[in-house]
């Protein structure tokens, strides 16, 4: 087994201390985007009966003759999808539309393109040797058998997953309730997006980033975003209030070594346990992970690139665990098309963008405060300590 990265090790150490949200049953039409709390089982075979894969004619293979054409048949009936199949009389054919049930007596379907038709008869314009038993028939249970797991617990009900919820007859679905999350931004220097600012002030970009990132996950209930002054009492009071209403609190700023970085002391004052603080990663080294009675407290550094990287690599798997989700947003291996010789003595997350070929290229960046490079990026790659080159490296999409 490969060694855990610093981010993975931090997640593993904290995740076992967090409390997963409860399950509930809700009407199936309201379940889109939610996380299944129990397996979704097939309530019948799929398809429920053998059906035609083509517009064509159901026949008995044994009744085909030698030569070409290999048979002329009286049309006994016409069957559309959603109607029961009548019996197939000997020596006759039944005309089927795509998805229509195949009569139990038939073992082949001939495409309409391979026939000549009149109102009452069909001629099969093929040689018998060109036809095989079972062709163009989707047999009962081909997709899945009744009682089999269609989607396991932990699956997010995406639009494509909702197809299964609808097809297998669920009026109610067992899901985990939404994970309630609050964002708490520390910093006396912050101003709200769009407000006029003095040269010594900073418009808060971390809050809007996290708010939009969380709001884009339908299994999360984003409650609110707050801003708090840099005093121990203010941080402690706000943190306590947030813990009363939320399952997880994501903080930005206040976790470094400055005199005004009060987040660690505030967590301790409330009886919280700090599981990790400061990791060998760049950017995001000051990141802090803690909990109070199983509720997540994730302290992200104040610079925007650090916030993005640590939210994605550490915050996301922690939130997924609490929400009951089986993670589907890990990383993949990818190469960078413009490698350089730069390296760091710790794990280095470097922003990437798409080049004209659709591949990845490193974004020119001036550090963890370079929000312009963050805005241009599609994700980032993970360079292990003291390594460089094209890769392949772990690639994390935003």
Summary keywords:
six-stranded mixed β-sheet, alpha+beta, single chain, Molybdopterin biosynthesis moea protein, domain 2, Molybdenum Cofactor Biosythetic Enzyme, Chain A
Shape: elongated
Number of strand elements: 27
Report strand order across the widest sheet.
Answer: 8-5-7-6-10-9
**Secondary-structure-derived class:** alpha+beta
What does this structure look like?
The strands form seven sheets. A six-stranded mixed sheet has the order 8-5-7-6-10-9, with no helix packed on it. It has a six-stranded mixed sheet with strand order 17-14-18-22-21-19, with helices on both faces. Strands 20, 23, 24, 25, 26 and 27 form a six-stranded mixed sheet that branches. The chain folds into four domains: 6-21 and 178-322, 3-Layer(aba) Sandwich (Molybdenum Cofactor Biosythetic Enzyme, Chain A), CATH 3.40.980.10; 31-46 and 144-175, Molybdopterin biosynthesis moea protein, domain 2 (Alpha-Beta Complex), CATH 3.90.105; 51-138, Molybdopterin biosynthesis moeA protein, domain 3; 332-397, Beta Barrel (Beta-clip). The protein is elongated and about 95 Å long. Helix 1 (6-15) crosses helix 6 and helix 4 (232-245) packs across helix 5. It contains seven helices and 27 strands. It is α+β, with helices and mostly antiparallel strands. 19% of the residues lie in helices and 30% in strands.
